[in-house]
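step=encode ok
step=design start
structure_in=
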């Protein structure tokens, strides 16, 4: 499996992979509400996030084998600038198209704000792997590569993330992360976790 920095040409394939990876994720389920059109909402969500991060030069990694892109991870470095105007407008349209999304995002953001470290850090906002490859180490490779980006940045004190999958908590703890906060997202629990730089 090759882990590399994504380019704009990887967008559609990466989004397709993330839609599969997050089909039953509690965070995206809470925000985007499963039901009719859910896959389309997921695709718009991940497309906007990836397009913005690529435009800003923020970390976007893909895991690729002979079959194509099998996983992706993306987030922010220590001082992310505002989104470009066209993408900020596209996000505003996306929020307005989904009833209650703005309010649910506010709940999510409030919990996350309580768990973020007070020092400059990298934020791992999304990490997902083709469900058919779970348990094969692809997520570990993506996580390690993202943490290495943080480790090579003298402005970063570590990596912060959130998860609402209880099974992921142990995965991140084995990688050195520890819980900094938690809260309720509807019927799910959101764990905030941080890995300080070694």
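sequence_out=
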């Amino acid at each position: 499996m090759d882990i590399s920095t994504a380019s704009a040409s990887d967008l559609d394939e990466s989004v397709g992979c993330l839609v599969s990876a997050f089909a039953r994720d509690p965070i995206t389920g809470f925000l985007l509400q499963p039901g009719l059109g859910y896959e389309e909402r997921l695709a718009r969500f991940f497309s906007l996030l990836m397009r913005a991060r690529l435009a800003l030069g923020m970390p976007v990694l893909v895991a690729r084998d002979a079959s194509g892109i099998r996983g992706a991870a993306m987030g922010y470095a220590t001082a992310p600038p505002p989104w470009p105007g066209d993408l900020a407008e596209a996000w505003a349209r996306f929020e307005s198209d989904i009833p209650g999304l703005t309010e649910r995002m506010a709940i999510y953001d409030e919990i996350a704000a309580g768990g973020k470290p007070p020092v400059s850090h990298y934020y791992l906002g999304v990490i997902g792997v083709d469900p058919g490859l779970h348990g094969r180490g692809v997520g570990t490779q993506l996580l390690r590569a993202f943490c290495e980006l943080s480790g090579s940045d003298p402005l970063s004190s570590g990596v912060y993330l959130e998860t609402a999958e209880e099974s992921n908590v142990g995965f991140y703890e084995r990688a050195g992360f520890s819980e900094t906060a938690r809260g309720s997202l509807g019927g799910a629990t959101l764990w905030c976790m941080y890995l300080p730089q070694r």
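step=design ok
step=annotate ok -> The chain has one domain: 2-196.
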